[in-house]
Specification:
Blueprint (H helix, E strand, L loop, with lengths): L3 E5 L3 H13 L3 E6 L2 H10 L4 E4 L2 E2 L2 E2 L1 H9 L4 E3 L7 H4 L15 H13 L1
Helix pairs in contact: 2-3
Length: 118
């Protein structure tokens, strides 16, 4: 199984930290994408095994990306400081694992493996 992950995060330093962390643990990182537009372009050119999404991006909420991932049956987790991300990003985010921000390394890696199994 491919360990490719789409990383959608608009805060540069957080995106870089996550990218390095994921690569150190054997993941191939697509992105990071800082906007909905960039994320959707990446999704058109590659199909990740899983995705990590921030809820609010430079050009709006991540909702269109989450919907595109669902349509392609790509599981995703959230890395958000919002306690109830679905109140910001809509129903498509309800019940999705949120590893928080900043994300704990073990929790993030565990959540990625977990959603890939389902």
């Amino acid at each position: 199984m491919s360990k490719s992950v789409l990383l959608v995060e608009d805060e540069f330093l957080i995106a870089m930290d996550l990218e390095l962390l994921l690569e150190r643990h054997g993941w191939h990182v697509l992105g990071p994408a800082a906007t909905v537009k960039q994320a959707l372009q990446l999704l058109r050119s590659a199909e990740p095994a899983v995705a990590i999404l921030d809820v609010t991006l430079k050009d709006g909420t991540v909702t269109p990306v989450a919907e595109a991932l669902r349509a392609q049956s790509v599981p995703f987790v959230l890395a958000s400081a919002y306690e109830k991300p679905e109140q910001v990003g809509g129903e498509v985010l309800a019940g999705v694992v949120n590893v928080g921000k900043p994300a704990d390394t073990r929790a993030l890696l565990s959540a990625l493996e977990q959603v890939m199994q389902t």
